[in-house]
Structure formats: structure tokens, C-alpha cells
Design brief:
Structural class: mainly alpha
Distance between the termini: 128 Å
Number of strands: 2
Strand content: under 5%
Order of helices and strands: HHHHHHHHHHHHHEHEHHHHHHHHHHHHH
Largest sheet: 2 strands, antiparallel
Helix content: over 70%
Strand order of the largest sheet: 1-2
């Protein structure tokens, strides 16, 4: 009995659950399509329909509840809606009234428009009537003009007037007799004028060819002036920008626009040509005249393109190119103004012929052996090309021919500058340059950024370089200028990279090679090598100026070449050559020192007396070192000065050790060692004093010249030691004798015989201390022999 109610309750609960799902979906605004599809697929649409109805009833109940709760608001909203309706009616009435007024105003305007159109129509009719009257007046006026021109011998306007009458008015002349007279006289007049003007045209052909050179020169000169103005303007602009960027001050520059008469190059008379062409046009024989004109001008061009072998091309190239320029300027004017006398194809044919010949001429100048001549020809050809480009001619082939000569030009320029560099190096005295006034300082130092201080020095000023440095810089600057001049205004829009490459090649292959040849020659001395090393340092510094100067001439912003990667390879090469100069200097110094150290052969190695004031050689060595380092201090930078001092003292140290090893020294005693010790003390005192007086002690706080004498000092200390056998103690050896070599020590110790030559001296002078030191030395000799 209870089973059915339970199932009903369960069913109701299930329906309630499904209704809840359905209500949730509807409330979320989700699509019910999948749910409906599923119901039909399951065959239970009635159940879904029941659920929808059930949900609908629930919603209706909710709506009724909501309406009961907010019925006052609904009533108020309806009242407001009615108010809006009344306002809408009023707005509609106002719109209807405004529309009526607009129609009234528009009707009046339409009437005015119709009246305006009628006025325009009347005006058009009056204009047509005036035009017809003017035509009638023109016919009468042309007849009067013809009589006047013909009576005064003005055949061209007369013939033009006849042509107008013949073409436009002859058939409309109402008087038959007059018409017949005019028809009869026109051919006779044309024949007379044709003969006269044909003669004038042939004279004009001769005259225009003779004038072509002047026309071309004038046009090219005008182009040269324009280029110069542009370059000056760009230079002013560049300087102003650089000064502004550097913060020197506020600078303003303006572009000056001048009124230029661009037509002055075209002041040549084409009237005979126009007349002749017009006559043949009137006669219907213009094609024959075109052919006649073209053939004659082509013959003239071929004649102008012939280069005379009797005169060097460098003397005739301006006339050659000016003549051709004038010819094509005339042809351009004829093409543009003659009304079809020449065709563009005919001019193109003539131009191709001329370009082929000019290119051949430029390529055939192999005998030209001067960079200056090549530059002059190139500059004039670029002006020629720039001039004719203005008239629409294609000049790319000419610029390519010039570019093909680029390598030859730079080779000639390199060779010319090489000879100048060799001359400068050969004539240099390699003495520091003395500058007596500020103008010379400006020209020789500031111009190439060689100054070591920003302040102006007192005069006379002794520069740290010789005269070859500014002279070489001037040659390099002229090379840059020559390279830029050749590469500018040609096929290379940005010539800086090519100029930089050529500059690098010049500095490495010419300047650096010449310096190396000078360094490696046997004619230079120590002071010269020292000055060459100092000169190379300043040339190395000047490479940055050369890069900036090249960029400036090429119109490249200076800031773009101040990056480290923009520097020249030559800077590194010059640094290497400077090191080679230092090596050559050290070799010369060492050779000179060897001459003085050779005096050690005169030392008495078995003397019974100690040389308290040093041996004979040491005074010569100290005098030379004083001179050397004083000169180096004036010329060389501190690092180079340190190198020279270290090298010289180290060589002296090696020479002292070598003196003990010399085969001629069979034996030596303690007195000789004490004498060498005194020499070494003098050297050490000199080294300390010089290291301090030259200011190197402030730069290299942990260094000293004395350290270069370490091997000699340790050897002397060992020989004078009371216990020389301690040399074999690793700890003591590392501390006191680290610079000594086993084999050298063994050889030297074998020669050390610490006893006088006489037997009585041996018995009387030997002390216990000497005996102990001798025993220790014998032990050292034995142990070194065993070790070896």
C-alpha cells in the first residue's frame, strides 16, 4: 500500500530536480537546443514539455508576485509614458511647421536659380557672337600683317601668316578675284623665302658648330659654380653642426638662395633652323629636311669626336668635352622647341655614339702617368656628366669608365706621395722641432691634433717630434684630399669607405714602409732612432685626425667615425713599427755599451789592490747613460723611457756577468770582485737617482732601474759571501740568488782563486775568515760540479 506513494514522491523529487536544472539553464541564458535534441532522441518529448509548462507556471506565479509588489511603480511608469506621448505630438507639430517654412524659402531660391541659369545661357550666346566677330577681324588683320611683313622683308612671320591664311581662311574668302590672286601668289612667295632661308640655314650649321665649344664651356662653368656653392654651403653647415655638438656656442646657419639665370647657357640663335623647318613643313617636305638636318649634325659630331694625336690629351680634353657638351645642349633645345624636327631616338643614337667614343678615349689614356692629370680629367668629365644630366642624358657609362681608372689613379697618387715621404724622411735632421711663434704652432701642431696640452705653450716651444711629423701629416692630408676629390661626384654615393681603405693602404704600404726602411738602415744613430720612435708615436696619434679629416671631406658626421671600431688598421701597424724602432734603439744602445764594456778586458783580474774609484770602463758607461737617458727624457714618453733605461742597464748587467765568463779571463781574485762591486754600486746609485729624477718613480711605484742589475748584483754578492755554499740551499737561493744560472755560476766559481800570486803574500795575508770563505767556495765548486 505504501509502495505507490513512495514511487510518486520519488518521481516528484526527480521532476523537481530536472525542473531545477531547466530553470538554471534558462536563468543563465544558456542554449536549450542540446537538451531538446536529447529529449527527442530519447523519445521523451512529452516529459520535457511537461517540465517546460511546469517552469512556465512557476515563472507566471513569480511575475504575478512581482507585479503585486511593484504595481505602484508600473502605474507611475505608464503615466510617464503618456507624458512622453504628448511631448512627441508637440514635436511632430513643430517639425511640420518648420518644414512648411523651409518649403516657402526653397521655392524662392529655386526661382533665383532658374534666373541665374538663364543669365548664363545669355552670356554664352553673347560670347559666341563676340568670338565670331573676332574671327572676322582676325582675317582682316592677318591680311594687313602679311602685307607689312612682306614689304619689310620679314619672311618668317610673313610665311607664317600665309600659312594661317592658307589653312584657315583661304577657302572662306568671299571675293573670288581676291581669292585667285592670293592662291596664285602664295607658291611664288614660298619659293622665294625658301631659297633665302636655305642659304641662312647652311650658314647657321657652320656657326652653331663653332659656337658649341663656348656653349659647352659656359654650361660646364655654370655647373662648376653651382657645385662650389653647394660644397661651401655644406661646409658651413658641417662646421656649425660640429660646433653646436661640441658645445662651443650657439651657431646658426642659413641657406642662401640666389636667383640664378639658368637659361644663360642657352643663348644661341635657332631662328634659321626654325625658319627652314617651318618652310619645309609648309611645303610638305619636312621628312626630307629632318633627314638632312640629322645627317649633317651626325657628321659634325663624328668630326668633333676625333682626338688629335698631335696634341697631348691633357692639353685638349677641356675643348674636347666642351665641344661635345655644346653639341648636345643644342640638340636638347632643338628636341624640345622645334616641334618634331628631331626624335628622341635620333638623339639617343647620337648620344650612344658619343658615349662609346668618349669611353674609349678615357680608357685609352694609359700613357697618362700623373695623378694630377688624371684628377683634372676626371673632375672635368664629372662636371661634363653633371651638366648633361640636367638635360636628361644618361652618363652612367662615363662614370663607370672613370671608376675603372680609380686603381690607376690611386697607384699614381701613392707613388707620388711615396717619393714625397722618402724625401721628407731623407731630409729630416731627427732633431726636436723648435717653434718660435703661434702661427707655426697652429700649422704644425694644432692642425694635426699633435698637441700634448690644451693650453698654448710659451715660445720658443720645443716640440717632442722632429719636422718630418708635420711634413708627413701634410702629405697624408693631401693624399686624403686627392682620394676624396677623385671619388666624389662619381658613381660612389658614399665614398668614405673607399677613402678609408686607400688611406689605410697608404699609411701601411708607404709611410710605415718608409719608416721601417729608415729604422733598418745602417746610417741612423741612437738619438735618431729615439726621435724616430717618438715621431711614430705622434703619427700613430695623428691617424685619428686622418680618419676624421677623411670623414669631414666625405660629408660624414664626425661622431660616426669616433667609435673604436672606426679606427685604422694602420694605427696598430704603426704601433708595431714604433716597437721596432724601440728595438733598433736598444740594439744601437747595446752596441754602444758593448764598446765601453769591451774595456773590461783591460781589468787586472788578479790585482792586489781594490779599485776604489771604479774601473776605467765605468766612467764612460755612466757618461753615456747620463746622455742617453737625458735625451730620452726629452723625446720619449715615460713608458718608452723606462724601456730604454731597463734595456740598457740589463745589458750592462749581462755584460758584467759575461766578463767573468770570458775565455780570456782564466782566473780572478776577491780584489777584482771588490772592484766590480764598486762599479756596480756606482751603477745602482745612478739607476736610483735617474729613476727618481725622471719621474718614473711616481708612475711605476713598484719598479726601479736597480732591478735590471739584479743578476750582476747577485753574482757579486755570491762571490763576496762568507758562505757561498749556501747557494745550493733552495730557500736561500730562491731568496738571494734567483737570477743566477747554475752553469754560469759553476764556470765563474771555477775561475775564482781567492789568493795573491806570491807565496809570501799567501802566508802573510791569509786570515781565518778568508780561509773559511775559501773552504766554503771549494765546497760550492764541488757541489756544483756534482750537480752538473
Amino acid at each position: 500500500m505504501n509502495a505507490k506513494p513512495k514511487r510518486r514522491i520519488a518521481a516528484e523529487n526527480g521532476d523537481a530536480g530536472e525542473d531545477l536544472v531547466l530553470v538554471t539553464l534558462i536563468g543563465n541564458g544558456e542554449d536549450l537546443g542540446p537538451l531538446v535534441r536529447h529529449a527527442f532522441e530519447m523519445g521523451r518529448p512529452e516529459s520535457l514539455l511537461q517540465q517546460l509548462k511546469h517552469v512556465m507556471k512557476k515563472k507566471e506565479v513569480e511575475i504575478e508576485d512581482l507585479c503585486k509588489t511593484h504595481y505602484e511603480e508600473f502605474i507611475q511608469a505608464v503615466d510617464e509614458l503618456r507624458g512622453v506621448l504628448v511631448d512627441a505630438e508637440e514635436l511632430k507639430s513643430e517639425l511640420s511647421s518648420d518644414n512648411f517654412k523651409l518649403q516657402e524659402v526653397g521655392s524662392a531660391l529655386l526661382i533665383k536659380v532658374e534666373e541665374l541659369l538663364e543669365s548664363y545661357s545669355i552670356k554664352k550666346n553673347v560670347a559666341e557672337a563676340i568670338k565670331m566677330c573676332k574671327n572676322c577681324v582676325q582675317v582682316l588683320d592677318l591680311c594687313s600683317k602679311f602685307n607689312g611683313h612682306f614689304s619689310q622683308g620679314q619672311f618668317y612671320p610673313a610665311l607664317k601668316t600665309i600659312d594661317i591664311i592658307e589653312r584657315n581662311y583661304l577657302q572662306n574668302i568671299p571675293v573670288k578675284a581676291l581669292k585667285m590672286v592670293v592662291e596664285k601668289r602664295i607658291p611664288l612667295i614660298k619659293l622665294h623665302i625658301e631659297k633665302r632661308l636655305s642659304s641662312q640655314f647652311n650658314e647657321w650649321l657652320v656657326q652653331i658648330r663653332s659656337s658649341a665649344k663656348t656653349i659647352g664651356q659656359t654650361a660646364i662653368g655654370h655647373t662648376a659654380s653651382a657645385r662650389q656653392r653647394d660644397e661651401e654651403m655644406l661646409e658651413r653647415q658641417r662646421k656649425a653642426e660640429e660646433q653646436s655638438v661640441s658645445g662651443i656656442g650657439d651657431f646658426a646657419y642659413s641657406l642662401d638662395v640666389e636667383e640664378l639665370d639658368e637659361e644663360f647657357v642657352l643663348k644661341f640663335d635657332l631662328t634659321p633652323l626654325y625658319r627652314a623647318y617651318h618652310i619645309h613643313t609648309c611645303l610638305g617636305t619636312q621628312e626630307q629636311f629632318r633627314e638632312y638636318y640629322y645627317n649633317n649634325r651626325l657628321l659634325q659630331l663624328n668630326s668633333d669626336l676625333q682626338v688629335s694625336s698631335a696634341q697631348p690629351f691633357v692639353e685638349s680634353y677641356q675643348s674636347f668635352f666642351a665641344q661635345i657638351a655644346g653639341h648636345f645642349i643644342v640638340e636638347d633645345r632643338v628636341l624640345r622647341t622645334s616641334g618634331g624636327l628631331l626624335s628622341a631616338d635620333q638623339i639617343e643614337t647620337m648620344w650612344e655614339t658619343a658615349v662609346a667614343k668618349m669611353t674609349s678615349v678615357l680608357d685609352d689614356q694609359s700613357h697618362m702617368d700623373s695623378a694630377t692629370h688624371l684628377l683634372l680629367v676626371k673632375d672635368y668629365v664629372t662636371l661634363f656628366g653633371a651638366t648633361l644630366t640636367q638635360y636628361g642624358y644618361e652618363v652612367g657609362s662615363l662614370f663607370e669608365a672613370l671608376d675603372n681608372s680609380r686603381d690607376k689613379y690611386h697607384a699614381l697618387l701613392l707613388e707620388e706621395c711615396r717619393q714625397q715621404i722618402i724625401g721628407v724622411l731623407g731630409n729630416d735632421t731627427y732633431e726636436q722641432m723648435v717653434i718660435k711663434k703661434d702661427a707655426d704652432y697652429e700649422n704644425n701642431v694644432l692642425s694635426f691634433h699633435l698637441q700634448t696640452s690644451d693650453s698654448m705653450p710659451a715660445f720658443p716651444y720645443i716640440a717632442p717630434f722632429s719636422a718630418m711629423v708635420p711634413d708627413a701629416c701634410r702629405i697624408v692630408r693631401s693624399f686624403i684630399k686627392g682620394s676624396v676629390d677623385y671619388l666624389s661626384n662619381g658613381v660612389h654615393i658614399n665614398s668614405y669607405d673607399l677613402v678609408k681603405k686607400s688611406l689605410d693602404k697608404f699609411l701601411i704600404d708607404v709611410l710605415n714602409e718608409a719608416l721601417l726602411d729608415t729604422i733598418q738602415s745602417s746610417s741612423i744613430g741612437g738619438s735618431q732612432a729615439m726621435q724616430i720612435a717618438a715621431n711614430i708615436s705622434f703619427l700613430e696619434r695623428a691617424t685619428d685626425f686622418f680618419v676624421r679629416h677623411a670623414a669631414q671631406l666625405c660629408g660624414i658626421p664626425i661622431r660616426s667615425v669616433e667609435r673604436p671600431q672606426a679606427s685604422l688598421t694602420a694605427k696598430v701597424v704603426l704601433k708595431t713599427s714604433r716597437d721596432a724602432a724601440y728595438i733598433a734603439l736598444l740594439n744601437l744602445v747595446n752596441s754602444k755599451l758593448d764598446e765601453f764594456m769591451a774595456l773590461t778586458e783591460h781589468i787586472n783580474w788578479t790585482t792586489e789592490e781594490i779599485a776604489q774609484n771604479g774601473n776605467e770602463y765605468i766612467s764612460e758607461v755612466l757618461i753615456y747613460l747620463e746622455t742617453l737617458l737625458s735625451t730620452a727624457q726629452q723625446i720619449l714618453p715615460p713608458d718608452a723611457l723606462c724601456k730604454v733605461g731597463n734595456g740598457a742597464l740589463e745589458h750592462i748587467s749581462n755584460s758584467i756577468v759575461s766578463a767573468f765568463l770570458r775565455d780570456s779571463v782564466k782566473r780572478f781574485n776577491a780584489n777584482a770582485v771588490m772592484g766590480i762591486n764598486n762599479d756596480l754600486k756606482m751603477l745602482e746609485s745612478f739607476a736610483d737617482e735617474k729613476f727618481h729624477s725622471t719621474g718614473l718613480s711616481e708612475i711605476y711605484k713598484d719598479g726601479s732601474f736597480r732591478a735590471c742589475l739584479l743578476e750582476a748584483r747577485q753574482l757579486i754578492n755570491l762571490l763576496l759571501s762568507s758562505q757561498p755554499e749556501n747557494f745550493m740551499n733552495p730557500v736561500i737561493r730562491e731568496k738571494n740568488y734567483s737570477a743566477l744560472d747554475y752553469k754560469k755560476v759553476a764556470t765563474i766559481c771555477e775561475k775564482f782563486k781567492d789568493s795573491p800570486d806570491s807565496i809570501f803574500g799567501s802566508l802573510s795575508n791569509r786570515s781565518a775568515k778568508q780561509t773559511s770563505r775559501k773552504k766554503s767556495m771549494d765546497v760550492l765548486k764541488k757541489r756544483l760540479k756534482d750537480f752538473n
